[in-house]
Design brief:
mainly alpha, elongated
């Protein structure tokens, strides 16, 4: 079969409208983790993985330490220190922005009112 050029489906139409069922991957991972480990006799795969994480953390592996801490204690909240003006409209005060929004709203209402009047005059 030749290479597909362009879109294989019409614009706005998904090739997989239902998508992957929610939870299907995590369900399969849990099921696989509950099976017996091939490398650690008497353990499930989950138990073997957990033991390996703890061993790696004990050996000083930073990623394992971080993984273990985040799974047992929760992730550390990050704080952001923002300085200066944080705005989608730099240099425009809140009052100026409110005035612009109000003016645009009034203008839109006038346009809608005029359009309504035109429809009434046509009938």
């Amino acid at each position: 079969m030749g290479k597909v050029v362009g879109r294989p489906f019409p614009k706005g139409v998904s090739g997989n409208p239902g998508g992957r069922p929610k939870g299907s991957l995590s369900k399969r991972l849990v099921e696989a983790g509950q099976k017996a480990s091939a490398t650690r006799k008497g353990m499930t795969r989950e138990e073997a993985i957990a033991e390996r994480v703890v061993q790696d953390a004990e050996n000083g592996e930073i990623d394992a330490i971080k993984f273990y801490a985040e799974r047992t204690e929760g992730k550390v909240a990050e704080t952001l220190n923002l300085q200066g003006e944080v705005s989608a409209f730099p240099g425009v005060s809140d009052a100026q922005l409110l005035a612009r929004v109000s003016a645009a709203d009034s203008q839109q209402r006038n346009v809608s009112r005029k359009a309504g009047n035109r429809k009434e005059n046509l009938h």
